[in-house]
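PROTEIN DESIGN WORKSHEET
SECTION A - STRUCTURE
LENGTH: 208
TOKENS:
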């Protein structure tokens, strides 16, 4: 397991800053970074949510001298319905993740964002998350997430009216998590007919 975590951290070092493994009590038993003392995550909100809710969760932290980082936690459960044996945590650089998001939508007029299950924006292609913490996706996107969870669906495409404008949108669940990636585009800005048809299709956003 340790070799696998080290390999992941090394191969994705531009995004992955650190991977940690904690036991059920929150005691850190492994980290891809060398530390003088192991960290105790028992009081960390991200750890506690993954610990008690048995779902992947995350939270963004901001620093004055480097891009925001996303701390995520994923419970490792051997038997369904049982408490997790371990919690895997990771710190991800949102600077590089956001750059990759931007590269995906460079040739479109749309806006793309990575959001959690509550609709809070983790990072977005317009870099708005850098200037305003606690941003949320438009309410129609949040309502769509609720619908997807209720119907056990992973993706959806459609349109909605927001702030007086019609938007085309596509949303997809990030595999094995409760996060989503969505892209939305102002319908009035779609001039070319072929682009209009393309925008109505599901955007390929599972590449993250």
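SECTION B - SEQUENCE
RESIDUE ASSIGNMENT:
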């Amino acid at each position: 397991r340790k070799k696998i975590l080290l390999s992941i951290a090394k191969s994705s070092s531009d995004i992955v800053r650190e991977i940690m493994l904690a036991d059920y009590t929150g005691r850190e038993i492994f980290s891809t970074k060398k530390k003088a003392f192991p960290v105790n995550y028992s009081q960390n909100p991200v750890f506690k949510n993954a610990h008690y809710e048995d779902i992947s969760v995350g939270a963004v932290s901001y620093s004055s001298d480097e891009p925001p980082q996303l701390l995520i936690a994923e419970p490792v459960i051997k038997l369904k319905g049982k408490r997790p044996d371990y919690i895997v945590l990771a710190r991800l650089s949102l600077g590089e993740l956001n750059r990759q998001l931007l590269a995906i939508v460079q040739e479109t007029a749309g806006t793309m964002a990575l959001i959690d299950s509550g609709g809070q924006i983790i990072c977005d292609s317009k870099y708005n998350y850098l200037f305003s913490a606690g941003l949320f996706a438009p309410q129609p996107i949040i309502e769509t997430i609720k619908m997807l969870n209720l119907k056990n669906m992973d993706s959806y495409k459609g349109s909605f009216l927001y702030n007086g404008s019609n938007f085309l949108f596509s949303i997809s669940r990030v595999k094995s998590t409760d996060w989503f990636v969505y892209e939305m585009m102002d319908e009035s800005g779609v001039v070319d007919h072929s682009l209009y048809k393309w925008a109505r299709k599901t955007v390929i956003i599972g590449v993250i």
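SECTION C - NOTES
The longest strand covers residues 165-173.
The radius of gyration is 19 Å.
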